[in-house]
Queue: 2 jobs
Job 1
Amino acid sequence: MLGPALLAASKTPRIRHFVTTSRVSRGLVNRFIAGNELDAAAAAVHGLVTKGLSVTIDHLGEDTTERSQAEATRDAYSTLLNRLAAEGLAPRAEVSVKLSALGQALPDDGTALALENARVICTAAQQAGTTVTLDMEDHTTVDSTLSILRELRADFPWVGAVVQSSLFRTEGDVRDLAHPGSRVRLVKGAYAEPRTVAHAKKADVDAAYKRSLAVLFAGGAYPMVASHDQAMIDEANRLAAQYDRCSSDYELQMLYGIRTSEQERQVAEGRQMRIYLPYGQDWYGYFMRRLAERPANVGFFLRSLVSN
Ligand code: FDA
């Protein structure tokens, strides 16, 4: 139960101040985040691509409450995409976008503003020769995110969706999304959700993940299997064999800094592995979710605090 408690505590200004100003945070932050600036991200992308991995890059930021900030994030993505094209990294490197960083939560016209900003990013991605995937945030954003996805796909059919097996609604959403040409990233879900909308037990989240995976493979979608859990990875590879999918017909995905030897092992066995690579100054929310996912990470962090 440490994870949900930590995620709840992470919302308080005191904890945020403590973690973001603590000198010892930086060591652990560096494990999960490529750096503050685009140069650091570009260097990390080159390193991963050289090892045969693909990448999806997240310019960190979320829960934007100002229009100007949303526009700055949109422009940062355009700069990033131009850089990927200039350095010959597209299409091995695409981008992942959080709609809440593009203004989705702004009162009145948040969904329209996020759609408008996302369109600009998709246009830049198309020109660069790569793709965009829309990250999924907490359950209150799912309807808005899926409606923006539908609008974007009318012009950019390659836009990727993300669905979370922890949510009760997801198996229905997966059935709608499981058609040929539909790029769908399946994750377990990183947000603390109420029991009214989400499975509370890990075993139920895992079973739902496997059911959704089967629907994606059976329906002819392009599954993006995002998990570090060996049981989920093995199940995806088993389904690929069952449905006669070759290695270009689906991909595995993991987060930067987690299970790196398994990332390389899957590539060595001939499979596609894409790494989710975050960079930027607004690392707090992303970092706290990574801590919360694994009690050992929290223990490591607390021990570093005590020993410094
Ligand atoms: P699980 O949590 O069961 O972990 C399995 C094993 O993986 C652990 O036993 C441990 O060995 C290792 N592991 C997992 N997390 C770790 C960590 N933080 N540190 C160290 N080891 C760890 N979520 C979301 O809500 N919206 C999104 O858009 C995305 N996008 C996304 C993209 C990609 C490429 C990935 C891999 C994940 C996401 N996620 C996400 C996060 C996802 O929902 C989930 O929280 C994490 O992937 C952890 O779940 P696992 O499937 O890895 O299994």
Job 2
Amino acid sequence: MLRQPMLLLAKSQAVKRLVTTVPVTRAVVARYVPGENTEEAVETAAALIAEGMNVSLDFLGEDTLQEAQADATVAEYLRLLHALAGRGLTASAEVSVKLTAIGLRLPNGDKIALENARTICQAARDVGTDVTIDMEDHTVTDATLDVLHELRREFPETGGVLQAYLHRTEQDCHDLAGTGSRIRLCKGAYDEPADVAWRDRHEIDLSYVRCLKVLLAGDGYPMIASHDPRMIAIAQRIADDHGRGPGGHEFQMLYGIRPEEQRRLAAAGESVRVYLPYGQEWWGYLTRRLAERPANLSFFVRSLMSR
Ligand code: FDA
């Protein structure tokens, strides 16, 4: 019930200004966002890698409407990749990039985002790692997949994300399940209209399983991004049916969500990657996480009110 209002808040600049100027306890945000700068992000990545995880780092930001901000985001990714290489972490650390953070919503945005993504992909390749292009709301699905398609001509190792809640996604899975493709399958985090997406949890789960079947039967590298124990168990069964060993797919979860399950899967020999967001632009990301779990919301509100 609270999901929709929370996701509306994610887009509200007024509420964002209000809340982000309150000195929210670092602990509330830190549950999901472990650092505000490159050094803190790299430290957290190193600690997770030492525990046997892989990571995907995301410099927070989205819906950029200024070219200078898009450029600054690209510069931060280059700094991050350099820092990861300096610590010898690039075998286990990749980066995730939102195209609207690097210019997709600017005039001529598809060209700007493609050029910026190319710069990041080249820097990632230079230090021996990969990039995954995050998926945002349905207004940019086609543009994001077009950019991914272009990027993969030059950087075939680039990963993409598909969201099971969209009606189109099962077909997109068929299109992207081929050799060499790396696809992260998630349920989807945005408030989407009923004409493009399922809104009922059960329908979304059914779609997630259909998409899992397509990706795990394909020749690509599926990245199963869910905290849902049922989806994880089903994915393991389907992967087994297709004779996929742990090297043939991986499980992904967000930093701070079900960490004990992340460790359990890794200890059981599964390949596990933790999505690790960092930076000061945590508002949109945090509200999506709160929308997924109302219990977290009351914790957040209590912490604001106790200030
Ligand atoms: P579901 O929401 O059904 O949750 C299952 C269980 O997980 C819950 O019962 C609870 O135990 C736990 N849980 C879930 N969310 C929690 C929370 N916020 N706090 C505490 N516990 C929680 N989305 C998108 O649209 N584009 C993208 O690019 C990505 N990228 C991405 C990367 C990775 C690695 C992950 C794991 C997820 C994404 N997502 C995403 C988010 C995704 O679409 C989805 O919103 C969340 O993963 C929640 O869905 P679940 O599959 O976890 O199931």
